[in-house]
Amino acid sequence: MKIVSTRTIVTCPGRNFVTVKLETDEGVWGIGDATLNGRELAVATMLDEHVLPCLIGRDPGNIEDIWQYLYRGVYWRRGAVNMTAIAAVDTALWDIKAKCAGMPLYQLLGGKSRERVLVYGHANGRDISETVEEVARYQDMGYQAIRAQTGVPGLESTYGVSNSRTSYEPADAGLPSEHVWSSERYLNHVPRLFERLRSEFGDELHLLHDVHHRLSPIEAGRLGKALEPFHLFWLEDAVAAENQAAFRLIREHTTTPLAVGEVFNSIWDCKELIEQQLVDYIRASVVHAGGISHLKRIFDFASLYHVRSGSHGATDLSPVCMGAALHLDIAIPNFGIQEYMPHNEQTDDVFPHAYSFVNGHLFPGETAGHGVDIDEKLAAKFPYKRAYLPISRLTDGTLCNW
Ligand code: CS2
Ligand code: MG
Predict the structure, then answer these.
(1) Burial class (CB in 10 A: 0-12, 13-18, 19+), 75
(2) Which end of the chain has fewer CB atoms within 10 angstroms, the N or the C?
(3) For ligand 2, a single-atom ion, which residues have Cβ within 5 Å?
(4) Are 328 and 299 a contacting pair, CB within 8 Å?
(5) Which listed ligand is nearest to 387 at the C-alpha?
């Protein structure tokens, strides 16, 4: 079997997505997600101009060799654009291999380690009362794990909270919108949210929170300690994780479980965090961490150190990434939880998929491959529309992490 044609498909059914499609001389095709929120065309160009031409004539069954060829062959290794491009090709190749085997992808990854994939949804509100209402709404929809984000008094906006009660889509403008941030106001307010949530919903419900890289290590230690009475499932991205050693300081101050890694694109971003058990969950995703092949390496390494998976699953990761992720989620021994932000209807129409949501869990489905396809005619109806992620500044104008 040989790869005879390749292309990238850029579409914007409410938000931008980039998809790679590889076609073979035996009529089998595979697709992979190549979406990098705010830098979509960088990845599309990387693929069209530098990666995809190298694939023509290759045997799609040689997944590992192609991965090594693309990872080592670029010379300038790693990085979000590079690893997202490799991820999309890798995902498409696994899709082809599973289709040729006539099996759902999880069968090639070791089969089922569980019957269903626990997911968490996003509840947010402009204040604590609205957030409580949203958590109740998600609980009524069957979610057993819910991430809660709330507005902070004195701040016009904050991460994870939409001002219009619609689902939160951060890539909101043709040039980066600017938001003001105050860690002090935030640190004083968040414990009140979780105190209220525990008194409203009791101890069973899994509660999660995303700090979104905004604190210093000692501030994160303070927050983790303040949240201990409310036993969160995890506190996510407490600090930016380039300095992996910084997590040791957080660890010294709190037993609140820590999750990190949605921005990671290789095992080298998290090797120290895992080896020294500085975190409890790794959030790396199929689309940004080199595909199924590399993400499985990361999770297998994490399994040696009691670190579990918690893959990123925001709406800026396409249904193709979600579909592929679920096959890994159901197969690996150290699965933790899967983030699940349902896509809008237009996106679901562009990306028909086999996965389904039932009672707080996702199921990958039994379709051969990863179970997701792309309707190219429909995709063509939604042209790319440049959109940036916001930036944040402190009240004195200092640029800080959004
Ligand atoms: C967030 C994301 O889902 C999450 O945990 O961190 O919404 C993140 O802000 C976006 O994926 C960025 O594009
Ligand atoms: Mg996050």
Answers:
(1) exposed
(2) N
(3) 210, 262
(4) yes
(5) 1
**Cβ(339) – ligand 1 distance below 6 Å:** yes
**Distance from the alpha carbon of residue 210 to the mean position of ligand 2, in angstroms:** 6
Could you give the count of Cα atoms lying within 13 Å of 84 in the half-sphere of its Cβ? 28
Taken as a whole, the chain contains a residue count of 402
Which helix (H) or strand (E) segment holds residue 247: the answer is helix 246-253
Among candidate residues 123, 117, 108, the one with its CA nearest the CA of residue 310 = 117
Q: Which pLDDT score, from 0 to 100, does residue 163 have?
A: 72
pLDDT tens digit string along 300-354? 999 999 999 999 999 999 999 999 999 999 999 999 999 999 999 999 999 999 9
Question: For residue 393, which amino acid is it?
Answer: R
C-alpha 291 to ligand 2 mean position (Å): 19
Known catalytic residue at 159: yes
CA 52 to centroid of ligand 1, rounded, Å = 28
Q: Does domain 3-105 have CATH number 1.10.3720.10?
A: no
Distance, in Å, from the CA atom of 124 to the CA atom of 137, rounded to the nearest integer, reads 11
3-class SS at 309? Answer: strand
Beta-carbon contacts of residue 65 (< 8 Å; ≥ 6 apart): none
* Protein residue whose Cα sits closest to atom 1 of ligand 1: 314
pLDDT digits (tens, 9 = 90+) for 145-187: 999 999 999 999 999 998 765 677 889 889 999 999 999 999 9
Residue 263 CA, ligand 2 centroid: distance in Å: 9
Q: Is the CB of 170 within 6 Å of ligand 1?
A: yes
> In this structure, which residue's CA is closest to atom 9 in ligand 1?
170
pTM attached to this predicted model? 0.98
Tell me the CATH class for 108-367.
alpha beta
SS3 content of the chain, % helix, strand, coil (to 5): 40, 20, 45
| pLDDT at site 361 | 98
* Both structure tokens of 30: 């595979």
Q: Would you say 104 and 368 are in contact if contact means Cβ atoms under 8 Å apart?
A: yes
Q: Please state the domain extents for the chain.
A: 3-105, 108-367
Residues of the chain with pLDDT below 70 are 164-166
Q: Whose CA is nearest to atom 4 of ligand 1?
A: 314
Neighbours of 2 (CB within 10 A): 12
